[in-house]
Every structure is written in C-alpha cells, then in structure tokens.
Amino acid sequence: MISRVVICATFIAATASVATAQGLPPVPVLTESPWNGDWVLSPTRNTAEIKEAAADGYRFHLQPDGRIRWEIPSLHEVVEGRVDGQPMSIRRLKPTALTLSVTAEGSRVLVYHVTRNGKPEGEGRMTLVDQGTAWVDISQPAGRPDLAGAVIYVRPEVATH
C-alpha cells in the first residue's frame, strides 16, 4: 500500500512539472502570519466586566524572520523586537518600566510575560480560534493561575456582523 505522503509528494511534483513546462510562475509560499492586522474586543463574547477591564484592541505585525510589532492603540503602546522570549521595552506616551517577552508555539499560539523593573507581573497565552477570525487571551498575574481570566478578540469585520 502506498502511503498518502508518497501520493501527495508525487502529485505536487507532477503539478510543479506541468507548471514549469507551461511557463507558469511558481506558487507563492504563504509567509503572512495569521496574527497580522487589527483585532478588537468581541462585543458579544465577553462579559461586561471583561469589556471594562480589557484593552479595546490590538494590532500585530509578525514577520517571517521572527520580528514583531505589537500595539495596543488605546494605550498608545508599542512593542518591537523578536518572538524569542527576550524582554522588549513597552513604549507608551510616558516611559514605563514594563517589558514584554513573547514566544510562539507554532503559528497559532503566542505566549507572553510582562515584567515591571525586572519583576514578573503577568503572563498569558493567546490562541487563535474560529479559523483565525478570533483569539482567546488567557492571562493571569505572574504565577497565579487561580486568578486567570479570558478575553476574546475578533477581526473588526467580524465584530460588526
């Protein structure tokens, strides 16, 4: 019995050969992160208490080489660096003593840690759901899983439907 992998590899190779023979351009490789773009607080999937406490929205730009730009527009917050677990300065209108470190667990999960003056303050896990149209942020004060809470963000076009 031929494995599915061999069948798929054979089909891909045959398709590439036909495309090359016909002078077609190669199929582009998807490098755009599913996190990229704007996200808003879900108007229907969060409690009133969460809506009052959570940031109104985020904007992300993750590049294939691991660089990230993480923004919370309502706080005028910008973080730039790499998704490698190293602390990045959190910039706001006024200087802060906060840093953010982010690591990726595949393309659909981001894990983060916030410190203030080098002391752990908070942490969380952001997971893309609903075919990438929403994400759930489960966050907590550092080392306090008993105080964890969840917030759901969606694409702006999803929020208006």
Summarize this structure as a short list of keywords or feature phrases.
17% helix, disordered N terminus, 10-stranded antiparallel beta sheet, 161 residues, alpha+beta, 3 helices
Describe the model.
The structure is a single chain. The chain is of the alpha+beta class. Helix content is 17%, strand content 40%. It contains three helices and ten strands. Strand 5 (88-89) and strand 6 form a beta hairpin. The chain is globular, with a radius of gyration of 20 Å. The N and C termini lie far apart (48 Å). Mean pLDDT is 85; it is low at 1-21.
Beta-strand segment tally: 10
Give me the secondary-structure category. Answer: alpha+beta
Strand order of the largest sheet: 4-3-2-1-10-9-8-7-6-5
What's the alpha carbon Rg, rounded to whole Å?
20 Å
Helical segment count: 3
**Average pLDDT, to the nearest integer?**
85
The end-to-end span amounts to 48 Å
Order of helices and strands: HEHEEEEEEEEEH
Describe the structure concisely.
The chain is α+β, with helices and mostly antiparallel strands and 161 residues long. Helix content is 17%, strand content 40%. It has a ten-stranded antiparallel beta sheet with strand order 4-3-2-1-10-9-8-7-6-5.
Describe the SSE topology:
Elements (H helix, E strand, L loop, with lengths): L3 H18 L15 E5 L6 H6 L3 E6 L4 E6 L4 E6 L5 E2 L8 E7 L4 E8 L2 E11 L4 E8 L7 E6 L1 H4 L2
Antiparallel strand pairs: 1-2, 1-10, 2-3, 3-4, 5-6, 6-7, 7-8, 8-9, 9-10
